[in-house]
Design brief:
8 strands; globular; 3-stranded antiparallel beta sheet; single chain; 6 helices; alpha+beta; 200 residues
Length: 200
C-alpha cells in the first residue's frame, strides 16, 4: 500500500515544486518588490527645511554603506570659533543618534550611533582642534566610529584637510582619523585610517 502511494506523492511534489519556480510579481516572503530603490529619499527632508540653523550633512547607514543626509544644527550668533566647533560637533552627534525619519526608514536608513554621547574641546596639552568624546572612540562599533569620523571630517568641526582628531574621556592617546572612500563603502569591515597624535 505504501508502494502505491509513492507515484502520487512524487506527482504532488513535482507540482508543488513547479509552483515554487513559477515567477510572481512580488515575492511574498521578502517584503517589497526587489525593484524598489533603496538609499534614495523621494521627498525633501521637511525637518531639515523647517528648522533654521547651519546646514550640515551626517552619514547614516544604508545597506552596507555610509550615505550623506542633510540636517541642520543650531549655533548661536556671535559664538567664538573654538566653541563653535564644539557646538557643531555636538549637534552632529545628536543628529547621528536621532531616530531616522519615517521617509529615511522607508528608504532603508539606520544609525549605529547611540544617544547620550557628548563631545568637548581640547584639554591642556591637546592640539587646539581636538574633539574629546564622552565614549572612547575605540569603544564604538566599527559602524558608529565610521559614521562619527566621516560626519565630523566633512564638517566645520574638522581641520581644513578633512581629518579629525578624536580622543576619549580617559588618558589614551589622541588619534587623527580620516574618512576614505573605502570606509564610506565598507564601514563594517574597514576602520577609518588613523595615526597617533603626539603633543599639541
Amino acid at each position: 500500500m505504501n508502494v502505491r502511494r509513492l507515484p502520487v506523492i512524487a506527482v504532488l511534489a513535482a507540482l508543488l515544486a513547479g509552483c515554487g519556480i513559477r515567477s510572481t510579481e512580488v515575492p511574498t516572503d521578502f517584503g517589497a518588490a526587489p525593484s524598489r530603490v533603496q538609499c534614495s529619499l523621494a521627498e525633501p527632508q521637511v525637518a531639515a527645511q523647517a528648522s533654521r540653523g547651519l546646514p550640515v550633512q551626517v552619514f547614516l547607514l544604508c545597506g552596507s554603506s555610509l550615505v550623506a543626509v542633510d540636517r541642520t544644527v543650531r549655533v548661536p550668533d556671535g559664538t567664538a570659533d573654538s566653541q563653535r566647533r564644539v557646538l557643531v560637533a555636538q549637534g552632529l552627534l545628536d543628529q547621528l543618534a536621532a531616530t531616522p525619519s519615517a521617509a529615511e526608514k522607508e528608504a532603508g536608513y539606520t544609525t549605529d550611533v547611540r544617544g547620550g554621547m557628548n563631545v568637548g574641546g581640547p584639554r591642556a596639552g591637546d592640539p587646539e582642534d581636538t574633539l574629546r568624546l564622552s565614549t572612547s572612540p575605540r569603544d564604538l562599533t566599527s559602524y558608529a566610529l565610521a559614521q562619527v569620523v566621516c560626519t565630523f571630517s566633512d564638517s566645520t568641526a574638522a581641520e581644513g584637510d578633512g581629518s579629525v582628531i578624536l580622543g576619549g574621556p580617559g588618558r589614551e592617546p589622541l588619534r587623527r582619523y580620516e574618512c576614505t572612500d573605502e570606509v564610506r563603502s565598507r564601514p563594517g569591515t574597514t576602520q577609518p585610517p588613523s595615526s597617533e597624535v603626539t603633543g599639541g
